[in-house]
Amino acid sequence: MLAYYRRCDMRDPACRRQRKLLKDEFNFWAEYVPSEPGYAFECAALDLAFSLQHSKDYVLSRLWAIYILRQLPQLSALQASLWHLDFPRLMAIGHALSAVPETEMPRFDDLLARFLHPKKQDESVPSARQIRRLLRQQFDPEPEPPQPLESLYSYPVAPGWACLEMVSSEGAIETIREAINTLAQQQDCTKAQALLKMALGETPKITINVYRNERSTEITTAGGERFNSQDLEVLADRAHERQLATDVEARGYRFPPSMRAAIIARDAHCRFPDCEISAQWCDIDHVIPYALGGPTSMSNAQLLCRHHHNLKTERKVFCRSDGEGNITWWTSSGKRITTTPAGVLSDATEPP
Ligand SMILES: [Zn+2]
Description:
single chain, two-stranded antiparallel sheet, binds zinc ion
C-alpha cells in the first residue's frame, strides 16, 4: 500500500496548485528570516509589519517558524519533498520549540520527521493541535510558570463593556471554558451570564471529564491539556474515578456515559477532515447508522460537529471506520481522505 498525504497527491490538479501557493508563501517569508535570533528578528518583523500592514506578531510568528524549521534538517528535507506543512502547522512547531536548547534539537527533529511522515493511503496531515500535543508530551509537565503566575486582568473595550483575561494552566483554562460553555448551553444564556451565575453560586452541578492513563499518574483533559500540581489538588477533592468502556457494545441507540467519555477522549474533536470543533459542540455519530444495523460501540462511533453530521446524513459525503478509530471519508466524486483520532486515548499523539 502506498502511503501518502491526501493534500500531497500530485495527480490532483487542486493539490498541485495548493503546493505552488504554499511554496510561494513559504519562500516569500523565508527571504526575510534573519540568521540570528534576538534583536535582528524584532527589527526585521517590525519593518515587514510596516510594509505589509500586518501586526508584528503575525510577521514574527512566520519568520520564527521558518527559523526553527531550519534547525530541523530531517523535517526541512521532508517539507522540501512533500510541502505538506502549512503555516499554522509550522507555527505550532516554531512556538513549541522556541525555548528548546540547540543540543536537544536533533531529538525533536527525529520525532517530528517520523510523526509528520505519511503512514496510510490518503491520510490527512496531523493538525496543528495534534503537533502541539505531541510536542507538549516531551516537556516537563510543570514548566517554569510565566510571570505573573495565575493572574486575572480586566480592561475596558468599549463604553459600558470590559474584557476579562485570565492566565492559568492549560488544563484549568480548558476546564473553565468547558464548564462555562456547558452551563450556557444548559441554561440557554450567554457565556458571560453563565460565568456570572457561577460567580454567584447559582449553578447546578456540572460534570467535566478529565482523564488518567493507567500507565501513568498524569491527569489531562480529553484534548491532552495538562494541569499544574495546585489544580490537581483541587481536582483530587472532587473527582470520582471510573473505568472507561472501550470494547463493549451497548444495547439501544444511546451511547452510555462511560462510552461517551471514552469516545470523547479518543476523538477530542470533530472527525471530519481538518475540522477541530471541540467535543462539547459535537454529536456522537454511529458511523454505520443504527437503523442499518450499526452497533452502539466505540468502533462504530465518531464525534461530528452539527454541520458535518448533517453533511453525512444528507449523503453529501460518506465515511467508513476501520474499527481502530481511523475514519476514511469520501465525496460523491470519489476523493478520499483518512483522519486519525487526536484525543488522549488515541495512538496519534503517542511518540511514533
Ligand atoms: Zn466538523
